[in-house]
Specification:
With 294 residues, the protein is mainly alpha-helical. It contains 15 helices and no strands. The C terminus is likely disordered.
Length: 294
């Protein structure tokens, strides 16, 4: 009798769980999942097209209707690509992007911390200037910036490609917004224990800024890697070109080998994907936590 009662109660409980699960699967959820799936396919498809196009011959890469998957894949595009100084371009891109990433994270964290936690005359005015600078197109300051770098003799050098990007207004804005979420009592307790300002920032503030630093590192690396316009203006020789700039020079005046260009684009996308996968946890934390206070 007890066994049959337990079985009936177990069956009732399982039926209730099934009904609750069915209630959770609402039409709105199904529609949301379908929309997310379509958006995922929409954003991944260009990358898929670049990867498959890198293994197609020229006639197939430009064929109409298109060949969705290379039936006769070839490595000729990669062979032709590496006839150019691709490794030198890749080294330039990585060096510039990495140095900018490190420098921007250091400068922005220092400036954001000061603007968020220090009280001094003109603090609001300085932060307002940073916000206003975010709306300023890069093309507006390019002429005076180029003139200044030419006076310093930094055109076609690593200094001219790296240093102008260090004071990124968006980086300061992001770090300032995130630094506001740090409790002031924590800083006061550290100072009471005899912690110096430098030690306070290095051992307490900087570790707490880690999620925002991860997000800023991704933003900076990708922005620097794809900064085609500034690199085009500041470089003069083939040896100083970056990978995106070098791949763009493969486009001919009358004919363009799209298979080779797609191979170059696929190669150029690898570091950005690697950086995002490396910092994606900090990236999501930095985006969500940094928006708590305005």
């Amino acid at each position: 009798m007890n066994a049959s009662l337990e079985l009936s109660q177990g069956g009732t409980a399982s039926a209730v769980r099934k009904k609750s699960r069915l209630k959770e699967i609402s039409p709105v959820k199904v529609l949301s999942l379908l929309l997310l799936l379509l958006a995922t396919v929409f954003f991944i498809f260009p990358f898929y097209w670049i990867i498959t196009g890198a293994f197609k011959i020229q006639t197939v890469a430009t064929a109409i209707p298109p060949e969705w998957f290379p039936l006769k894949p070839t490595l000729q595009n990669w062979t032709d690509l590496f006839k150019n100084p691709v490794w030198r371009w890749t080294f330039n891109s990585f060096l510039i992007a990495f140095c900018e990433m490190i420098a921007v994270c250091i400068v922005s964290s220092l400036a954001g911390y000061v603007l968020a936690k220090k009280v001094f005359p003109g603090r609001r005015a300085i932060f307002t200037l940073f916000v206003a600078a975010m709306a300023l197109p890069k093309q507006v300051i390019l002429v005076p910036l180029f003139t200044m770098l030419a006076d310093f003799g930094w055109v076609n050098t690593y200094w001219g490609l790296i240093l102008p990007a260090i004071g990124w207004p968006f980086g300061v804005f992001l770090m300032k917004q995130f630094a506001q979420t740090i409790p002031g009592e924590l800083m006061e307790a550290a100072k009471m224990d005899g912690c110096s300002e430098i030690r306070l920032f290095a051992t307490i503030i900087l570790p707490l800024l880690k999620p925002a630093l991860g997000a800023l590192a991704i933003f900076t690396f990708i922005a620097s890697w794809n900064d085609y316009f500034s690199q085009l203006i500041m470089t003069r020789s083939t040896s100083m070109m970056t990978l995106p700039l070098g791949v763009a020079t493969m486009q001919g005046e009358y004919t363009t080998n799209y298979g080779v260009m797609m191979a170059g684009a696929a190669l150029a996308s690898v570091p950005m994907i690697a950086i995002f996968l490396l910092f994606q946890k900090s990236f999501t934390q930095g985006i969500t936590m940094g928006a708590v206070k305005g």
